[in-house]
């Protein structure tokens, strides 16, 4: 079976335009649902982050009032996965040729660090050029912004993709004071951003790029990745 790399942010705070700090971390469902899907299909999952930092849990994703009644289960799966996998790899040490897919979950962390991480950008550029599956969900597509060419152009410009929408950011209460909004930034850089109803599962597959809109899209995105891997076996 295949080896899949899940790239986490290392950020635990999101600095706001009013000078306040918003606590963040990995979103449990967005890490756990793909992990569960991938491992159930027999694939091996490894984790990496900037500097090999183990990001903390976004506590909002453990609140049933925010993340839904299944959130405790997702938290347990995520904690077991991260504990059993050991310390995350350093992004700077990752060889993309070892992986059949590279997946970026969310939480707000990716809009703090991954969007401009040079190591991630180089990793994604090599992976995309090789046709490796690239997956991202919710705020994870912010990491795609790191992949630029020698001329500074964005390597994913013109590609169809889903991501957490401006509407969802507003409904969540984090749009005001955000330094920038993900869906708007993706469109500004040239993405063909597509979206479904707020907080409902919605995914987009464009060649080797498979993306999901929000936490509810995590498992459907992972299902598409597993199906694509099966065609390559």
Automatic annotation (TrEMBL):
Molecular function (Gene Ontology), one example: glyoxalase III activity
Domain DJ-1/PfpI: 30-226
GO biological process: methylglyoxal catabolic process to D-lactate via S-lactoyl-glutathione
CC per GO annotation: cytoplasm
Segments forming a coiled coil: none
PANTHER family: GLUTATHIONE-INDEPENDENT GLYOXALASE HSP31-RELATED, PROTEIN/NUCLEIC ACID DEGLYCASE DJ-1-RELATED
Annotated family: Belongs to the peptidase C56 family. HSP31-like subfamily.
Name of protein: Molecular chaperone Hsp31 and glyoxalase 3
Protein species of origin: Pseudonocardia autotrophica
């Amino acid at each position: 079976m295949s080896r899949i790399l899940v790239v986490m942010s290392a950020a635990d705070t999101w600095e706001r335009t009013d000078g306040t700090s918003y606590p963040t971390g990995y979103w449990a469902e967005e890490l756990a649902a793909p992990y569960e899907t991938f491992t159930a299909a027999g694939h091996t999952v490894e984790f990496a982050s900037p500097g090999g930092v183990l990001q903390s849990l976004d506590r909002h994703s453990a609140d049933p009032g925010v993340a839904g009644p299944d959130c405790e289960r997702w938290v347990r799966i995520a904690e077991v996965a991260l504990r059993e996998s050991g310390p995350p790899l350093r992004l700077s040490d990752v060889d993309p040729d070892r992986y059949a897919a590279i997946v970026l979950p969310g939480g707000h962390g990716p809009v703090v660090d991954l969007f401009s991480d040079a190591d991630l950008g180089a990793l994604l550029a090599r992976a995309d050029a090789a046709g490796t599956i690239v997956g991202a969900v919710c705020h994870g597509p912010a990491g795609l912004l790191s992949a630029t060419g020698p001329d500074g152009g964005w390597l994913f410009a013109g590609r169809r993709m889903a991501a957490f929408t401006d509407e969802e950011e507003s409904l969540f209460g984090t749009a005001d004071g955000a330094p920038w909004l993900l869906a708007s930034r993706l469109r500004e850089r040239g993405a063909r951003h597509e979206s479904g109803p707020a907080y409902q599962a919605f995914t987009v597959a464009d060649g080797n790029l498979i993306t999901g809109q929000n936490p509810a899209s995590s498992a459907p995105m992972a299902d598409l990745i597993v199906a694509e891997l099966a065609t390559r076996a």
